[in-house]
Amino acid sequence: MFPNLTAELEKMKISTKDFAFRLGISERTARNKLAGKTEFTLAEVVKIGSMFPDEKLDYLFYFEENT
């Protein structure tokens, strides 16, 4: 999972539905990507970076594996 990205989405009050819309993907796909079940594409990473211009990508995409 991506705890920093999830926290930033919550801080900006961006719902999973809105996040999915901004990326041009389904809400289910967005949930799977945020959970680390499927990978983000490069184009999606670029879009996410533009959504959070004050944050570094390595911070946003810090990944924690579920144990």
Tell me what the structure shows.
- This protein has 67 residues and is an all-alpha fold.
- It is built from five helices and no strands.
- Helix 2 crosses helix 3.
- The radius of gyration is 11 Å and the shape is globular.
- The termini are close together.
- The mean pLDDT is 96.
The total of helices stands at 5
Structural class given helices, strands, pairing?
Answer: mainly alpha
- Report how far the terminal alpha carbons are from each other: 11 Å
Low-confidence stretches: none
How large a portion of the residues is in β-strands, by DSSP E?
under 5%
Specify the overall morphology: globular
According to DSSP, the number of beta strands is 0
Radius of gyration from CA coordinates:
11 Å
Considering DSSP H and I runs of 4 or more, what fraction of the residues is helical? 55-70%
What is the ordering of alpha helices and beta strands? Answer: HHHHH
Any descriptors?
5 helices, globular, mainly alpha, 67 residues, single chain
Write the topology of this structure.
Layout: H1 3-11, H2 16-23, H3 27-34, H4 42-51, H5 57-60
What is this entry, summarized?
The chain has helices spanning 3-11, 16-23, 27-34, 42-51, 57-60. The protein is built from five helices and no strands.
